[in-house]
TrEMBL record, chain A:
It comes from Primorskyibacter sedentarius. SMART domains: AAA. This is Peptide/nickel transport system ATP-binding protein. Keywords: ATP-binding, Cell membrane, Membrane, Nucleotide-binding, Transport. GO terms for cellular component: plasma membrane.
UniProtKB/TrEMBL annotation, chain B:
It is found in: Cell inner membrane. The keyword Transport applies. Signal peptide: none annotated. GO terms for molecular function: ATP binding; ATP hydrolysis activity. Belongs to the ABC transporter superfamily. This is Peptide/nickel transport system ATP-binding protein. It is a peripheral membrane protein. It comes from Primorskyibacter sedentarius.
């Protein structure tokens, strides 16, 4: 049996708002094996970030989180306490965000920010912690790392700051790294450097990676497995090659068709857009949440719950008509 | 034939400090930029953030005065043109429609505003026609921007840009904040508007796949300079400049077989304060040699491209 670094069943996150309860995550299953990269992809507002922040235990107090199973890096957290999660955070599990500028404190040196956590969690001495910081900065491709420890974030470019964020996340030698749109704000040349780095780290350190993105190019470049999220649920989960070669959920198909591909999509041709927009998530959603936008929707799509068609290795599609979707 | 858009030798610098107590320095945002777009054609303008695309756009729109150089739209100099004439000729669509759409005004008012301002008649009928043109249901005329989706707000921005009947539309990253499904809707809309109205367009984007789909020819910028320009087919099939090649390689396609490009660039990011002698890309260039930094690099014709690199073959 493969060792699971993350095993979540039926994760739900609800947030009270003045217009009613926002059911942003509505029963998500996620499993990530050791050393695997799972990409969580979907349009904005689908609940990707809330899924990640709830895994990290970083949601605001007023958010309601429940799950049937929540196991992470070998620990059962189903009846988790904040204290238990806080202990894992910054050690076995770490997270990096889209915007490194907001995650790095501009008034503290890089050295201070990198060493603080491990000095507290692992009771390392300052010199031990600094030695590890130098090792990690070197690992992520920051030149002359020892001299960099005394510098402040503003002296670094956007790409370098994202590298420093990654070094910071690696300080506690995590087994699971969660990256929420880590390259969305970066130029494509820097993006490919950061993705290459994440791939190398994963191979060298045996990291498991949950990478959240809305960019299917990023998914194709780095994922082993893909989970496509729509309106708070996973619509389809499949290995990357299969997903791109033969998407089965109409939403996955729609997303892939909407991207122009140089040399493939005829220039100036009408792109097959998905009509409409992601539904509001306040209150209950019954039946398939995609059916208003779906080209093949029928009466049976309103039935609740939507059946899940499962295949080998944890693959599944939630679509009552999945058999009818042609590639 | 006179090109619809012509920029000649545009230069724009900013004076600024790098730190609170640092001396002021000159940042060259756009340098030596010449461009021509024929009537009914679309120019794609690409390059990394900070390379001067938006500055060039503001200059084309007559919103920013260049230090030197000439801008002509439909054969008329934009610098001396009355605003009322200018806005009837050339209009922008920006990345973030929220910035230009007052949240407390109704869509009806927002779309009709340019016409009100510049003395148009039949405003209500025109707004109706515009909403229809951009594919928005008439009932949204009474809505506020906050009630609309991102894609709908971008349609409102386009309707507002078109109500004065301009001949040129300058789109600065119009789909960059949108999801791919909505991006496709907006691209389709721009394509059909271009055909229907005979618009000349400049389409600025950092997404090369989108540019490839929309543009007839493409100019690539690096640190304020045009470093390559070619017809879209030629650029994508046979890019000449090392930077264009890196940019194309780094564009990730929805194809798991394609993988990640090999690392070819130095880690250093582009430095906008770099001395402007020789090739500005040299510090990161895989093909660089000493003469690249010592000799000024001029644009020259190579195969089907105009390229600023002595080493390109
Ligand atoms: N703290 C919050 N309070 C209220 N609503 C929120 C909060 N965080 C997220 N949401 C809403 O929850 C939904 C899912 O958000 P998010 O997880 O950020 O989506 P994604 O990351 O897929 O774009 C969105 O409708 C968003 O507006
Ligand atoms: N108002 C301004 N003051 C000072 N510098 C500016 C200003 N606007 C842009 N710049 C600088 O000019 C360069 C070009 O910017 P911009 O035209 O916005 O590039 P792009 O649109 O390609 O990202 C950048 O280095 C940017 O920081
Ligand atoms: S001029 Fe030299 S450094 Fe510049 S792009 Fe060409 S080869 Fe590279
Ligand atoms: Mg998000
Ligand atoms: Mg810009």
């Amino acid at each position: 049996m493969t060792e699971m670094m993350l095993d979540i069943r039926n994760l739900k996150v609800s947030i009270p708002t003045d217009r009613g309860l926002l059911n942003a995550v509505r029963g998500v299953d996620l499993q990530i094996a050791k050393g695997e990269t799972l990409c969580l992809v979907g349009e904005s507002g689908c609940g990707k970030s809330l899924t990640a922040t709830s895994i990290m235990g970083l949601l605001p107090r007023y958010a309601k989180v429940t799950s049937d199973r929540f196991e992470m890096v070998g620990q059962d957290l189903t009846t988790k306490t904040d204290a238990k999660l806080a202990k894992l955070r910054g050690r076995d599990v770490a997270m990096i965000f889209q915007d490194p500028t907001s995650a790095l404190n501009p008034t503290l040196t890089i050295g201070r920010q990198l060493t603080e956590g491990v000095m507290r969690h692992e009771k390392l001495s300052r010199s031990e912690a600094e030695a590890r910081a130098i090792e990690m900065l070197d690992r992520v491709g920051i030149a002359n790392p020892a001299a960099r420890l005394t510098q402040y974030p503003h002296g670094f470019s956007g790409g370098q700051r994202q590298r420093i964020m990654i070094a910071s996340a690696l300080m506690g030698r995590p087994k699971l790294l969660i990256a929420d749109e880590p390259t969305t704000a970066l130029d494509v040349t820097i993006q490919s450097q950061i993705l290459t780095l994440l791939g190398e780290l994963q191979a060298d350190l045996g990291l498991s990676l949950l990478l959240i993105t809305h960019d299917l190019g990023v998914v194709a470049a780095i994922a082993n497995d893909v989970a496509v999220m729509y309106a708070g649920r996973i619509a389809e989960r499949a290995p990357v090659a299969g997903l791109f070669a033969a998407p089965r959920h109409p939403y996955t198909k729609g997303l892939l068709a909407a991207i122009p591909v140089p040399g493939v999509t005829p220039r100036g041709s009408e792109l097959p857009a998905i009509p409409g927009r992601v539904p509001g998530l306040i209150g209950a959603l019954r039946g398939c949440a995609f059916r208003d936008r779906c080209a093949i929707a029928g009466a049976e799509c309103a039935h609740d719950p939507v059946p899940r068609i499962s295949a080998a290795q944890g693959q599944f599609i939630e679509c009552v008509k999945a058999g009818e979707v042609t590639a | 034939m006179i090109p619809m858009i012509r920029l000649t030798d545009i230069r724009k610098t900013y004076r600024l400090r790098r730190g609170m107590f640092a001396p002021t320095e000159e940042l060259v945002a756009v340098n030596d930029l010449s461009l021509e777009v024929a009537k009914g054609k679309t120019l794609g303008l690409v390059g990394e953030s900070g390379c001067g695309k938006s500055t060039a756009v503001s200059i084309m729109l007559g919103l920013l005065k260049p230090d030197r150089g000439e801008i002509e739209i439909a054969g008329q100099k934009i610098g001396t043109m009355p605003v009322a004439d200018r806005v009837r000729l050339i209009q922008p669509v920006f990345q973030n429609p929220n910035a230009s759409l007052n949240p407390v005004k109704r869509i009806q008012t927002l779309v009709g505003q340019p016409l009100q301002l510049y003395g148009g008649t039949n405003v209500d009928a025109e707004v109706k026609r515009m909403l229809d043109l951009v594919g928005l249901p008439a009932r949204l005329a009474d809505a506020y921007p906050g009630e609309l989706s991102g894609g709908q707000r971008q349609r409102v921005a386009i309707a507002r840009a078109l109500i004065l009947g301009p001949r040129v539309l300058i789109c600065d990253e119009p789909t960059s904040a949108l999801d791919v499904s909505v991006q496709a809707q907006i691209i389709n809309l721009l394509l059909s508007l271009k055909k229907e109205l005979g618009l000349t367009m400049v389409f600025v984007s950092h997404n090369l796949a989108v540019v490839e789909h929309l543009a007839d020819h493409v100019a690539v910028m690096y640190l304020g300079q045009k470093i390559e320009e070619a017809a879209t087919d030629a650029l994508f099939a046979d890019a000449c400049h090392p930077y264009t090649r890196v940019l194309l390689a780094a564009t990730l396609l929805p194809d798991p077989q394609a993988g990640l490009p090999e690392q070819k660039l130095g880690a250093a990011a582009a430095d906008p304060f770099a001395a402007h002698r020789g090739c500005l890309f040299a510090p990161r260039c895989p093909a660089m040699r000493q003469s690249c930094v010592e000799d000024p690099q001029e644009l020259r014709t190579l195969r089907e491209s105009l390229v600023r690199c002595e080493r390109a073959v």
